[in-house]
């Protein structure tokens, strides 16, 4: 299993300190990671900003840091509500294809994508067909770069493990696999071991972060009491200190045959704030936990 660090952690999206892509790669290597996962949008690997000169510089930085680029991460919503005249699917197909083109030249093997949020006028069946056809075309275009499409269990459509495996079967492309994570099945109440074991034979990458659930309530003065509010507030904490049973998750992945890329992400505000020192502490904590638990059979 390769241990990676996702550049979204140092991109500044949630108020944390931001690093350039080059500085992030150097930092991931200094922290001791095997590889990096690069966010496919500004301020990091945005295809619209890529040039041959920037590519050469990134290749040089990766080589000098002695670290591999394993994954590039696309940000897609294949159910995006849009007027009929807006070619949002074509835009996203081209975007993923471009990420594959640049990512392959950086040495990456995978492009991570999302399915879609359940919004807009299409019926669930129509959304399903649209997502399947779009993923098929994305996978076919990535095949030209010898890359694999990795579908993450993140957005609404096919987020349950059984539904995700059904979707993968419908896509039916040898270079379409899963990017299977623990936080989603945990929050939705699936058995992490069983979900991971079922998904593992089809899983290329997993992206990890640990969370606690904080119950929410609203005061109702008419009864001088509180009403439970759903869903819970969720907050990121250092790896191994949250409520997600990651030992169970990785046992399921291992028992199912997974031996791919496991990347760490800080993709929300984290306990302790967004200083570089705190971000680095979280990253090191993940490495320590994985070496003590997930990498031991």
Short description:
The protein has 297 residues and is of the alpha/beta class. It is 39% helix and 21% strand.
Which key phrases capture this entry?
two-stranded antiparallel ribbon, alpha/beta, 10 strands, globular, 297 residues
How far do the termini sit from each other?
12 Å
How much is the average pLDDT?
A: 97
- Placed side by side, the strands forming the largest sheet appear as 1-2-3-4-5-6-7-10
In the predicted model, the low-confidence regions spanning at least 5 consecutive residues are none
Q: Helicity, in percent? A: 25-40%
In quaternary terms, these chains amount to single chain
Description:
The chain is α/β, with parallel strands linked by helices and 297 residues long. 39% of the residues lie in helices and 21% in strands. The chain is built from 9 helices and 10 strands. It has helices at residues 21-31, 52-65, 88-105, 124-143, 161-171, 183-188, 192-199, 246-255, 276-294; strands at 2-6, 35-39, 68-73, 110-113, 148-152, 176-179, 203-208, 210-220, 225-237, 261-264. The strands form 2 sheets. Strands 1-2-3-4-5-6-7-10 form an 8-stranded parallel beta barrel, surrounded by 5 helices. Strand 8 (210-220) and strand 9 (225-237) form a beta hairpin. Helix 1 (21-31) packs parallel to helix 2 (52-65), helix 3 (88-105) runs parallel beside helix 4 and helix 4 (124-143) packs across helix 5. It is globular and about 65 Å long. The protein starts with a strand and ends with a helix. The relative contact order is 0.15. The mean pLDDT is 97.
């Amino acid at each position: 299993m390769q241990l990676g660090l996702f550049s979204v952690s140092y991109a500044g999206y949630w108020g944390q300190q931001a690093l350039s892509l080059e500085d992030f790669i150097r930092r991931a290597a200094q922290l001791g990671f095997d590889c990096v996962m690069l966010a496919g949008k500004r301020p990091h690997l945005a295809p619209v900003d890529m040039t041959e000169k920037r590519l050469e510089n990134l290749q040089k930085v990766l080589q000098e840091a002695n670290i591999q680029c394993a994954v590039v991460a696309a940000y897609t919503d294949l159910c995006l509500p849009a007027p009929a005249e807006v070619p949002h699917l074509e835009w996203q197909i081209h975007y993923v294809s471009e990420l594959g083109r640049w990512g392959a030249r950086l040495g990456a093997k995978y492009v991570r994508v999302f399915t879609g949020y359940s919004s807009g006028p299409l019926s669930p069946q129509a959304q399903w067909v649209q997502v399947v056809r779009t993923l098929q075309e994305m996978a076919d275009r990535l095949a030209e770069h010898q890359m694999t499409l990795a579908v993450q269990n993140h957005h609404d459509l096919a987020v349950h493990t059984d539904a995700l495996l059904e979707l993968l079967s419908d896509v039916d492309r040898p270079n379409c696999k899963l990017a299977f994570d623990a936080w989603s099945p945990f929050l939705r109440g699936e058995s992490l071991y069983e979900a991971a074991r079922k998904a593992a034979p089809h899983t290329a990458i997993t992206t990890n972060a640990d969370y606690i659930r904080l119950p929410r309530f609203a005061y109702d003065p008419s009864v001088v009491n509180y009403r439970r509010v759903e869903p819970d507030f969720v907050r990121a904490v250092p790896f191994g200190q949250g409520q997600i049973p990651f030992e169970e998750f990785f046992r399921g992945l291992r028992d199912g045959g997974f031996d791919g890329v496991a990347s760490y992400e800080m993709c929300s505000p984290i306990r302790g704030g967004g200083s570089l020192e705190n971000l680095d502490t979280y990253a090191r904590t993940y490495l320590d936990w994985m070496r003590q638990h997930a990498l031991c059979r």
